[in-house]
Amino acid sequence: MRKKKTYIFNEQTLQVLSELKKLTSQTETQIISDALSFYLKYKGKENSFLSKFDYLFEKIEKLSFELGRCQERVRYLEEKLEEKKL
Known about the structure:
- By secondary structure, this protein is mainly alpha-helical.
- It has helices spanning 11-24, 28-85.
- It has one domain (11-85).
């Protein structure tokens, strides 16, 4: 089902639309439709990427913390070993 809508664009947007119309030989309606579909697809991928990035960042934080604990334990054990040698 199609609905007729009227939008008001600023001059820069109209200029971009005009350039795209020349480049693609598509109607303004098709260009806007494609742009909206692309934007929706992009936003979905962006949200998925950010979610995965947050997960990886949390894992890196945990690993960094554990590495610090391991390094501290090694340092402690090395000190104990040195004390026994003396």
